Amino acid sequence: MLASTPRTPPPRIQIHDTRPTVEGGRWPVKRTLGDVVAVECDLVRDGHEHLRAVVRHRPPSAAGFSEVGMHPVSADRWRAEFPTTALGFHVFQVEAWVDVFASWRSELERKVAGGQHDLESELAEGAAILERAGGLRAEDRATVAAVAESLRSSVPGNERAEVALSPALSDAMRRVSDRPERVRGPSLEVDVDRERARVGAWYELFPRSFGGFAGVEGVLPALADLGFDVVYLPPIHPIGVTHRKGRNNSPTAEPGDPGSPWAIGGPEGGHTAVNPELGTLAELESLVASAREQDLEIALDFAIQCSPDHPWLTEHPDWFFRRPDGTLKYAENPPKKYQDIYNVNFATDDWRALWDALRDALVFWVDRGVRVFRVDNPHTKPIGFWEWLIRTVRAEHPDVVFLAEAFTSPARMYALAKAGFSQSYTYFTWKNAVGELSEYVGELAGEASEFFRPNFFANTPDILHAYLQSGGRAAFEARLILAATLSPSYGIYSGFENLEGVPVKEGSEEYLDSEKYEVKERRMDGTLLPLVRRLNGIRRASPALRRIDVRFMTTENHNLIAYAKGRGLGAILVCVNVDPHSAHEGIAMVPGDLDLPREFTVRDLVTGAVHRWGVGPNYIRLDPAATPAHVFSVEP
Questions:
Q1: Beta carbons within 10 angstroms of residue 47's beta carbon
Q2: Both ends of the chain: CA-CA distance in Å?
Q3: According to a count of CB atoms within 10 Å of the terminal CB, is the N or C end of the chain lower?
Q4: Rounded CA separation 120/586 (Å)
Q5: pLDDT tens digits along 265-323
Q6: Which position among 95, 405, 515, 579 bears the catalytic label?
Q7: Among this protein's residues, is 204 annotated catalytic?
Q8: Whole-angstrom distance, CA of residue 204 vs CA of residue 292
Q9: What is the pLDDT of residue 604?
Q10: What is the DSSP letter of 505?
């Protein structure tokens, strides 16, 4: 069956391959406040008509659109830029139309250049175009009217053509409001966060190991001095007693065992209560305020799970999954079992009330000054729920930052980022070889960077990689330097600076005597803290390290990884020996397209040593007994 003829002709101008987009505009691209959004697209039309185009953009809460003119960067590729001026969701779209006057002028210009003299028809056509021009400014009307009258006069054709080709007329006609054949591309979004969503040095600690909220407040000056930006606290809520876990994840707790903070809820309350063993709500609010005064932020854990003693178990029993025999199903991640935790049932018929309660619990802490949340296992909850929750919260509080603790498949991690998470944990913890590191970071710095922001935690309370278990101090130093220089956001869990690396058993990534199940006595006195302070200072002074953009350099030694961040003077060149047991030598092949002179000076920002380097091969030797890495700055 033949297709019917369309009732109206389709537009002759087509807008193709608009960027930046994620999946053709299904999801917003991500930027941080102050970034410039560079918009590009292909504009195609049959024939030889000249086109014009603008990017229409509207910041959050603005009543209307502003426009910025696009310019061609190649035959059909057009480009424009607009700034991000507010937090929240910006909307933009491309609009294009035929520039009738420019098309006519171009044809006339070519005929004049070709020596044609019979131009009466062309000049009459030009006069008609000028007479139809609408929306002219008052100062342009006289110019346009005078030329139109001239084109209809008896003056010789070549003289009239010269007037028609004058720059003054072209300038006036560029301000015409008419937009023949106007087409608009799809409306696209840019999700603009504050810089903390992209950049930050995180330190994770258990408040109970520092003397509660008051004790944590006491170490804030030390954490600020070390250059951290975010202090992340695991759940601070009451901990259930029923099925409480004992030391080393024992299914039976002994008297005095504090239990896992992730077993949330007790007689004192649930997700909007604080564990009285840590302090009071007022002390938590004081901690949050004190941190802000020292340019630090307190991040809280948002874990959607409940101990058997959580008030929701009795108030909303239908929010939890029951087996056919009526028993509740506790959380499991085989072979791990969490007898002290029940997951909520997102398939409940009362799902709207559940969603509202979870939102209200999170906003409760936002109202008390918390603006950063580390979200526990978000990949085990509906992605649509996260899209709703994050949009809803950020509509009122656009400065809230959400970190996804999602160790799951790449597609799921990316889906959570597209749905709104500001940043995410990554596979960095398990990428220790040069090839897998460069491949993985290269992926994150590619198209994924439009929507996915990484946070390279070097360790967590759940992950003690075999590399740290066996590598000694050099392994800890190498991983710290890699995390701090490869990713704009990185983090360490307390104990890292003390080189804690003993697993609960061989082949396990769990710590022996894990802090998840017992109280430690922590002090800010770790042997690696001077290096932490230096690296955080380097990060703050180096804009190149505040972006994921990276250029890997050839080393010809599979134990050496080298990469460049930034271009020209001030660029950062990093070389790391990933073998913590042996010295290695090789080259760092500096590419010729980094805007560097043929020869230049590099200064090791950690040791202060100065070397002469240049474009091309440069010799390096790294002995982990001395230092596993160089962090060079390119100097004049």
A1: 7
A2: 72
A3: N
A4: 74
A5: 999 999 999 999 999 999 999 999 999 999 999 999 999 999 999 999 999 999 998 88
A6: 405
A7: no
A8: 17
A9: 98
A10: S
- Strands 13-19 and 66-69 turn out to be unpaired
For 424, list phi and psi in degrees, rounded to 5: -150, 150
Q: So what's the pLDDT on residue 1?
A: 65
DSSP 3-state assignment of 451? Answer: coil
Catalytic residue among 376, 450, 497, 518: 376
What's the confidence (pLDDT) of residue 325?
83
Q: How many CB atoms sit inside 10 A of residue 255's CB?
A: 4
Crossing angle for the helix pair 383-396 and 410-419, to the nearest 10 degrees? 30
Left (φ > 0), alpha (ψ -120 to 50) or beta: where does 544 sit?
A: alpha
Q: What is the pLDDT of residue 326?
A: 78
**Sign, CA torsion 321/324/330/335:** negative
| SS3 (DSSP) at 203 | strand
Q: In which residue ranges of the chain is pLDDT below 70?
A: 1
What gap in Å lies between CA 390 and CA 564, rounded to an integer?
35
* Listed residue (117, 116, 119, 139) closest to 127, CA to CA: 119
In order of their start, the domains of the chain are: 13-96 (2.60.40.10), 100-173 (1.20.58.80), 551-635 (2.60.40.1180)
pLDDT tens profile 139-156: 899 999 999 999 998 888
Task: Say whether 349 is catalytic.
Answer: no
Tell me how far apart the alpha carbons of residues 470 and 208 are, in angstroms, rounded to a whole number: 29
What sign does the CA torsion over 211, 216, 222, 227 have? positive
Is residue 418 exposed (0-12), middle (13-18) or buried (19+ Cβ within 10 Å)?
buried
Give the strand pairing for 572-577 and 629-635. antiparallel
Q: Where are the alpha helices (DSSP H) in 300-382?
A: 311-315, 351-366
